[in-house]
Design a protein that fits this description.
Protein name: NUDIX hydrolase
GO molecular function, one term: hydrolase activity
Shape: globular
Family: Belongs to the Nudix hydrolase family.
Order of helices and strands: EEEEHEEEHH
Helix content: 10-25%
Keywords: Hydrolase
Number of helices: 3
Largest sheet: 4 strands, mixed
Number of strands: 7
Pfam families: NUDIX
Length: 140
């Protein structure tokens, strides 16, 4: 099995909105997720999170804390994965799609109500993400 490792950045602003990206490869249906991507070279998970967040949103962030780990396997695609989620804070930049892979189609700040209605890349993340929004913890 192929082993994949990556990181995700979770950013909630002062209005209790979560920053999300709409993504799709050319042959996929567009779905929403938090900015994320795979480790490159000798990156740490934190460095990957910061790089991917900027690549996908144009915003420079700093990692505040680790939120959770997610791991598992997909037998259909013969892949094992490890994904670490980090709380991030925006330090500079302007919200802009600048994804080098050209998979990002849109960026937006989403409310709890919107999040629960979106077509998600990872539906299992909805409970975790809405829980953060319900806590009302600003992490931007």
């Amino acid at each position: 099995m192929f082993k994949w490792s990556g990181a995700s950045g979770v950013c909630i602003n002062e209005d209790n909105l979560l920053l999300m990206v709409l993504q799709a490869a050319p042959d996929e249906e567009p779905k929403w997720t938090v900015p994320s991507g795979g480790l490159e070279d000798n990156e740490t998970f934190e460095q990957c999170c910061v790089r991917e967040f900027e690549e996908e949103t144009g915003l420079k962030v700093e990692v505040i804390s680790k939120l959770q780990d997610k791991s598992g396997s997909n037998k259909e695609y013969k892949i094992e994965y490890e994904l670490q989620y980090f709380q991030v804070k925006v330090v500079s930049g302007e919200l802009t799609i600048q994804d080098p892979d050209e998979f990002i189609l849109d960026i937006g700040w989403k409310s709890i109500a919107e999040l629960e209605q979106l077509d998600m890349c990872y539906p299992e993340d909805v409970e975790f993400l809405t829980g953060l929004l319900k806590d009302g913890t600003e992490i931007n």
